[in-house]
């Protein structure tokens, strides 16, 4: 798991807990199994591309630049998610990458994992009347660019995590061997892809990357109730 910070002003904070938020001391990727109808519940905790498009998710002005920047910073491999927070000018404020270790494809589990990362890398905006920063999610996986139920669960989780952290819900992007794809928008490209080398940075140097230490324990301590 790696954390990238785009500026020194992106301070880490835990934020206040909301109902249903991860409980300290529990594994973050614990499968959420409330009852025997859990599989049906999981199906309800996902979004299809049409639902995603109808939700009014803001479009990225330059999605390829965002994708290339996150790819160069985190070098994701299949099974890696990268959550990033952008300011109103679409500048990267903070980002974090982490592995998808859960066995269940459940938007609730994904929500808690994303929320744990957001709380580590940037303060919440819950006191604002309207969100000013946007969170986007890049997920590197096997297969082609077509929507899957796993993608739908990530979409649901991203939307819910953004609400709980006071952020705008932004684009959900997949990175596969075919290239990258902004789901629900129909925009994509062949570079970068899962096997490509990172493109060189232009203008500014890449942010410092932190690995290991206390940050690596966050995902294990946060859990879905």
What features would you describe in this structure?
The protein has 6 helices and 8 strands; from the N terminus they run E-H-H-H-E-E-H-E-H-E-E-E-E-H. The chain has 225 residues and is an alpha+beta fold. Strand 6 and strand 7 (187-189) form a beta hairpin. Helix 4 crosses helix 5.
Write out key terms for the chains shown.
alpha+beta; globular; 8 strands; 225 residues; eight-stranded mixed beta sheet; single chain
Blueprint (SSEs and pairs):
Blueprint: E1 2-5, H1 38-44, H2 49-54, H3 63-74, E2 80-86, E3 92-99, H4 107-121, E4 134-140, H5 149-165, E5 168-176, E6 179-182, E7 187-189, E8 209-211, H6 218-221
Parallel strand pairs: 4-5
Antiparallel strand pairs: 1-3, 1-8, 2-3, 2-4, 5-6, 6-7
Helix pairs in contact: 4-5
Produce a short descriptive summary.
With 225 residues, the protein is α+β, with helices and mostly antiparallel strands. It has helices spanning 38-44, 49-54, 63-74, 107-121, 149-165, 218-221; strands at residues 2-5, 80-86, 92-99, 134-140, 168-176, 179-182, 187-189, 209-211.
